[in-house]
Write a structure and sequence with these properties.
The protein is an alpha/beta fold. It folds into 2 domains: 1-87 and 171-257, P-loop containing nucleotide triphosphate hydrolases (Rossmann fold), CATH 3.40.50; 99-170, no CATH class. Helices cover 35% and strands 25% of the residues. The chain has 10 helices and 10 strands. It has helices at 48-55, 78-86, 103-108, 117-120, 127-139, 155-167, 185-202, 213-219, 242-249, 253-256; strands at 6-17, 22-33, 37-41, 63-68, 71-72, 88-91, 173-177, 205-209, 222-227, 230-235. Strands 6-7-8-3-9-10 form a 6-stranded mixed sheet, with helices on both faces. Strands 2-1-4-5 form a 4-stranded antiparallel sheet, covered by helices on one side. A hairpin with a 4-residue loop joins strand 1 (6-17) and strand 2 (22-33). Helix 5 (127-139) packs across helix 6 (155-167) and helix 6 (155-167) packs parallel to helix 7. The longest helix has 18 residues, at 185-202.
């Protein structure tokens, strides 16, 4: 682990979805430090996505506390929560782009909360704001794609747009929920390389959930595995032994490899 100070913290977090009456998180205690590159592993339904959604306040635990940069997410009022969310960029499995808009317009959406309403509503941006976004497109390898519609992009290109949009927030933390699930292995590796490079260059904490064990071992610095809503493993790639993998994935261990 690198960096200093805590970026995200979980203290005895319990969460149950009322409609299912089933506990998703059960007493989670976890500290993710600034500049960590942390990969969440576990079978579907073990709580990985829910844990991420707790960090940006999309779901709330009924017990315990979640903090971002020492601020309690679920104790915050509306204005404070808005400020916390500005510190947390989100990358989605399904990209969450507006297909009819250009690459530039999709990435500009990342700075909308910082733009006065009289300009944001009609979509008016300054030259400096546009130049900021164009520089981010260079970072993610999409220089020259600014005017291309999102629905004309490949899956890997769409995910690069999603990363640029998250970076436009100037976040302290980036969350990525299965960001490579829909990508071929080569493109998936490129996306993980990009996220790892951003983490190392800018010191942004990255927390991402994966199913692919091989990528977790090749790209992770820290691996946290969930089992039945609890933290079952917290280790480095070298410390992830086959017995632990079998305990987490059971009969599906080979498919996860």
């Amino acid at each position: 682990m690198t960096g200093a100070g805590e970026a995200v913290g979980f203290r005895d977090v319990h969460l149950t979805y009322r409609q299912k009456n089933d506990a998703v998180l059960r007493g989670v205690d976890l500290e993710i430090r600034a500049s960590d590159f942390c990969i969440l592993l576990g079978r579907s339904g073990t709580g990985k996505s829910t844990l991420l959604r707790c960090i940006n306040g999309l779901v709330a635990p009924y017990q315990g506390a979640v903090t971002v940069a020492d601020e309690q997410v679920h104790a915050a009022d509306r204005n404070a929560l808005r400020g916390i969310r500005r510190k947390v960029g989100m990358i989605f499995q399904g990209y969450n782009l507006v297909n009819r808009l250009t690459v530039l317009q999709n990435v500009l959406a990342g700075i909308l909360p910082d733009v006065p309403a009289f300009r944001s509503l009609p979509g008016i941006f300054t030259q400096a704001e546009r130049e900021q976004v164009l520089s981010l497109l260079e970072v993610v390898g999409l220089a020259g794609y600014a005017d291309q519609r999102a629905d004309q992009l490949s899956g890997g290109q769409k995910q690069r747009v999603g990363i640029a949009r998250a970076l436009a927030q100037n976040p302290r933390v980036i969350l990525a929920d299965e960001p490579i699930a829909s990508l071929d292995p080569v493109t998936a590796g490129e996306i993980l390389d990009l996220l790892k490079g951003i983490n190392e260059r800018d010191g942004i904490t990255v927390i991402l959930s994966l199913h692919q064990l091989g990528f977790a071992r090749s790209h992770g610095e820290r691996i946290v595995a969930l089992l039945d809503g609890r933290i079952a493993i917290d280790t480095t790639p070298d410390g992830l032994c086959e017995d632990e993998v079998s305990r987490i994935y059971g009969q599906g261990a080979e498919k996860a490899a």
